[in-house]
Amino acid sequence: MKSLEELKAIREKMQGQVGVRSEDAAQTRVVVGMATCGIASGARPVLTKLSDLVQEKNMTDKIAVTQTGCIGLCQYEPIVEVMAPGKEKVTYIKMTPEKAEEVFNRHLQGGQVIGDYTISSVK
Asked: With 50 as the cut, is the pLDDT of residue 21 above it?
């Protein structure tokens, strides 16, 4: 059994390797549903695209891209949720890497929600 200090050191080392950052209340959180339904619908390339863009644009201090399990809306997968401090959560549905790039450019960088891609656009 490892000591608590050894386990903390291993955790910190692994977080650095996979680019995981501790969450900050001032950061915008981008969460991609990665349960079985999300993965089967193509969520992995969406997660990769968003993560790559945040890193390429050196925005890791402002935007945290993470994954979660089931969001509960399987028919709308892949799902991306954007939670900006002081704003309502925005749920994007049926995402693709191309749509994810547009969300990054227009919403995460430009502050403009893309209504056509949100859950509220479902009629």
From this structure: no
